[in-house]
Amino acid sequence: MKKRLSGVLMSVTSLPGNQGIGTFGQAAYQFVDFLKETKQTYWQILPLTTTSYGDSPYQSFSAIAGNPHLIDLDLLAQAGYLDRAAYENINFGDNPEEVDYARIYEARRPVLEQAVSGFLASENGQALLASFEQAEQSWLSDFAEFMAIKEHFGNRALQEWDDLAIVERQPEALETYRQRLADQITYFKVTQYFFFQQWTALKSYANEQGIQIIGDMPIYVSADSVEVWTMPELFKVSADKKPIFIAGCPPDDFSDVGQLWGNPIYAWDKHAETDFAWWVYRIKESFKIYDLLRIDHFKGFSDYWEIPEGSETAKPGQWVSGPGVALFDAVKRELGDLPIIAENLGYIDEKAEKLLADTAFPGMKIMEFGLFDTTGQSFDLPHFYTSNTIAYTGTHDNEVVNGWYDNLSEEQQHFVDKYLHRIADEPITQAMLRTLYATVSDVAIACMQDVLDKGAESRTNTPNTVGGNWQWRMLAEDLTPERKAFLTDITELYARTPDEQRKDDM
């Protein structure tokens, strides 16, 4: 990782456009151009994986497969697979600043089905699909079959399927469903081809412009996932693949009952027996599509909060030791040194701090956490930062700066203003970003909502809630010349421009 660089955190779903959700189309390329113009180096995104109930990218049907909502319809039309008339008059949402996931889910499917038909009928379609199937044989067929069977059972979760034989993947049942659902299985394979073809092209363009992609890997997978279906031995689940324990976090200052995430807990002893082969594979697959990788909930590798399934709150849970540095030693043996970022937020004890030190991965620092403390003694305050860190004002799980500041007490606001040397009439977002870019941290990442000076309504996610999250979208007109100029100015002022641009400026 290069020293003193910067970037922007922005979910692909939040890009502007007329398809109801951000996609890999024109607006994504324009966002890359904006990053280059303002002399950034990184585009940090949220997970690109499929979403289910609650629309969270951290609850996916697959650790590998991509979210078909992000497939750009205009690019499919340009490729000759789709007639624009098939989607140009569809209402994908009434509010251009919010994703209406229910409407997107219903409206996009018939359009994508037409594109799949057009692709399969094209001159090279069958050959392209065969090549993609060969390249992605480690996961594609399992995923497509899982999704087709899931649809067959009314999109119910794996644990609620009516046919126990297919839940258990009995050979005769598998063959029966493969024949019965052949067309649907092909649909899921082709849409994955669309996803990866478009994402690969976008990432290549970003890299050509000097922009690197920071991907995001959730630590856990969903109970309703192809991984639990095909490799249940890697999870603490019963014979019918129901979780015995679930993940979450204990009560803390943010919640007196803790958080129930619902993900199944890993059977870490089984992972260790294979020298963590699945984790090596998962991380290797991630680096095929990202340049750097943020691993979510890094604390869970030192020890994790294990909650008995059926608990109404997270209180009955207990701390259980995780795999520790052995997992990352195995990854390093197989894949070498990798640019990994550890999301070391939340309850971080000595054990978690030692794991971070043993891996030497950069951790994260959140300015909002430190500036709550008016004593000036919080280690989340910038004057305590070290260089091997990634600094943020907040993340997708925190309030945007304007909402955060408005909820502070008068005493806290006074401390914040004084600490930031905020001048009269300076927007709090600019004062925070200015201080963020001035930190000693090697990398500073600005949330796009703060760059745009958006209000509390633009918050991406409120943890431990379902509904109303992951919806925010920017408007193209929000990105004014003045906002671009400010971001460029602080990037240059605090020596965060890429090396080649620094040379050009000399």
Automatic annotation (TrEMBL):
Transmembrane segments: none annotated. GO terms for biological process: carbohydrate metabolic process. Keywords: Carbohydrate metabolism, Glycosyltransferase, Transferase. Its EC number is 2.4.1.25. PANTHER family: 4-ALPHA-GLUCANOTRANSFERASE DPE1, CHLOROPLASTIC/AMYLOPLASTIC, 4-ALPHA-GLUCANOTRANSFERASE DPE1, CHLOROPLASTIC_AMYLOPLASTIC. Belongs to the disproportionating enzyme family. This is 4-alpha-glucanotransferase.
